Amino acid sequence: MTNQPISCLNYIGGKWQASTNGGQIESHNPAQWKEIVAIATSSGRTDVDLAVQAAREAYRHWRLVPAPARAEKLFRVGELLQQRKEELATLMSREMGKPITEARGDVQEGIDCAFYYAGEGRRLFGQTMPSELSNKFAMTVRMPIGVCALITPWNFPVAIPCWKSLPALVCGNTIILKPAKDTPACASILFEIFAAAGFPPGVVNLLQGSGEVIGSALAEHPGVDLLSLTGSSATGAKVAEICGRTHKRLCLELGGKNAQIVMEDANLELALEGALWGAFGTTGQRCTATSRLLLHSDIKAEFTARLLERTKQLKIGAGIEPSSEIGPLVNPAQLERVKAYIDIARNEGAQVLIGGESINNKERGCFFQPTILDGVTPTMRVAREEIFGPVVVLIEVTSFEEAIEILNDTSYGLSSSIYTQDINRAFQAMRDIEAGITYINGPTIGAEVHLPFGGVKQTGNGHREAGNAALDVFSDWKSVYIDFSGKLQRAQIDNR
Ligand code: NAD
Is the pLDDT of residue 303 over 90? Predict the structure, then answer.
């Protein structure tokens, strides 16, 4: 593998080009920070103007391309992603650190998404309904929205851009993707694939650079019709404020503080596997990561002992090493953030059962030990704030009702899980948990692309990604009435 940094340009109007201001940003390998993975152009407001202009121009034609023909391009994206899956997964492991098996899963999610939305090109169903008047026909059709700005995080650098781009494109919108500055190379390869799939110039556009500069410029730009952002709640609030002022359609997918409940009747081995994967998969850097374990008092001691034993055995290492189960955190800032939360936990009276330290190696990798905090109460900051690292807190509960109450006692509402053998409790949990996703006897992570994805409360703003629900984000409903009576008919009046 060559260690030459990859050069990442913008893709605007069908052409690869450097930013007009000549700025650059680097992405580093979080497993050995001194290795520069990519050098990306860093865009400014002029580049935003150029991308919006290209996308607006292309929209005039793209919206009129029949949806099944638009879908053929998506199908091609799926095929090309399949061909380049290993290359992309390897790059992803180097650029943001996740273990190679998980990186393959990330690309696979993009492939699944491409084929799913390619299928939608032959559906995009509307409805017909009877009119209350004679000789009148009524139906609904989906309309594209226009130019969509898509702002994405680094933790799923292929899957999340695909979740947003592909439904937007099949609905007839044109897009401008602003990927996270930690993962420009993954976005660049994805756009090589988009370019090879044959989208007309201006339909797909890529702007590399900082969120503070171009993210907010996209939110402010009058030529952007919709903004879809996945990121932290703080960023979501900033963007929402701008989009409120500029009357822009906005879809937000933000943070989480997800919990897994383990009841006294649970299959403990299964619950243990789920907890390990949910808490430490992707080094805890998933929006759906398990960051709270709500353990019934009857099983807490045994479950904790087994969890500690298994956590000790987890293999930490560069994502690219096939034996690694836990990769590094994405960057030094994230490492500092996670460390700071351990100090906060200690100061609040929690005990570190295992982990709690960064792992210093000569490569200056951003590794942090998988960490379990005990003696945590629901009011502590580590029980309420998103840490986004391999840290899980243990909270003891004495009843099912208390477990649900504590699970719901958060400003977030993304994913949730309960392990129980009791069918009645499983159904009560399905009904009473306040979250966009609930798993019964499964961990909090593991979404599939054909189901809606997103959360309640401050995790989002009511929209859902993925599945059929994403079509409602990227299209508007039009109600159409066709009167073939040859006379004026007044609803609610002439038929009464
Ligand atoms: P982040 O909010 O720092 O960045 C996300 C994106 O927003 C990046 O592309 C960034 O450049 C851009 N951005 C930053 N500041 C901006 C601004 N002022 N205006 C416009 N854009 C701006 O988040 P991150 O650290 O990249 O990702 C981690 C966060 O994302 C976590 O909070 C995690 O829970 C969340 N996340 C949520 C989901 C979900 O579906 N709910 C999925 C993955 C990640």
Answer: yes
